[in-house]
Write the structure tokens for this entry.
Amino acid sequence: MVQDEALRALSELVARPDWLSLEPQELAWAGRDAAGDYRLYGVADRIGRVWAVVHPRTSQEVAAVVRWAARYQVPLVARGGGTGVMGGA
């Protein structure tokens, strides 16, 4: 499966294993914002599933993750500190 191959390749990019999460709870958290379901206007069921959460520590790791996403044609969403608590902030 392409996803398995892609995730194996991703795990090789980060310096430490704890900087990559495939844990269901963290994936669910990463796929939402503080606006909650009521602000999704009926599109919650069409939102793509998060494959992984990566915590790159260097600009080189960020660049490697961007190249990985391009190679495997995986949408990449960068997330800051989560300070914009209402969607689109």
